[in-house]
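Morning!

This is the sequence you dropped in the shared folder:
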Amino acid sequence: MLPVIEATIPVFAIVILGFGLRKSGFIESGSWGAVEDLCFYVFFPALLAKTMIKADLGNLDAGGFTLTLIVSVTIIGTSLLALWPLMRSLLGTRPSQFTSVYQTTTRWHGFIALAIVINLYGDEGAALIAIIFAILVPILQISNIMVLAAFSETSRPSLAKILLLVLKNPIIWGITVGLLVNFAGVTPWTPVMSILDLLGRAALGASLLVLGAGLSIKAALNPSKELLIGVIGKLLFTPLVMMSVASLFGITGLERNVLLIAAAVPTAMNGYVLARKMGGDAPLYATISTVQTVFSFVTIPLFLWLVQ
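The structure's back. Tokens below.
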């Protein structure tokens, strides 16, 4: 239990620091957007490209690992869609509220997962997280946009626009380039790897600070039944589904633990922007995200301790 706690404390300490920096006004609110863009468009693609270039993928049970991710996401998404009629009739949930529950339950904060995995398992674990990025980013991006479009009364993007959004994702490009270099057996020029390494070192700390700066305690003080479903769905239901499916496919050890971390982390904040642009309930998204992040301080170490 102690190694798990020691691996997660630095991650959440930096999140809290980001929140404090924003609340204190030490860094102006308008500046955080630029830091977030740097993380998304520069730092993380560089980190993931370097990780995939150096990854030893020979011992990975790619079939079972990939199937676990795809089947788990399918079960979670289908369960939420099946829950919608009950939420509408029994709770009076509006379509826009449901889209935020769906997004915050299915999306994952890969940057938190990567930080914890690197602390616990080093480069080998980081390579597995990069593979999860490669599999989940397009699946979740497309499915969440389609749910928002289906439940929205204002914005219904075409399939071509959805695919374009996925193809333009810099994280996908970073992983793709790294995989191509890895599979080609090419040894990149040392200065190139040094550049990727330097940029990648900035990724984790900066992204965690940005996450903390985006938390809204005021929003979290407005509880609702939809908030409760979003928190339980992400922090309890999602990890339990992932572990059950991993067990079904015989995934154990490091691969199982990395899958658990990916399932147990709170939702990603990029869904907030999507909710705001496509008619979702953005304030509810911010509320659920904040509460998930706070409670994940406890649930992530607890799940890891239980499986170990």
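Headline: The chain has one domain: 2-307.

More detail when I'm at my desk.
O.
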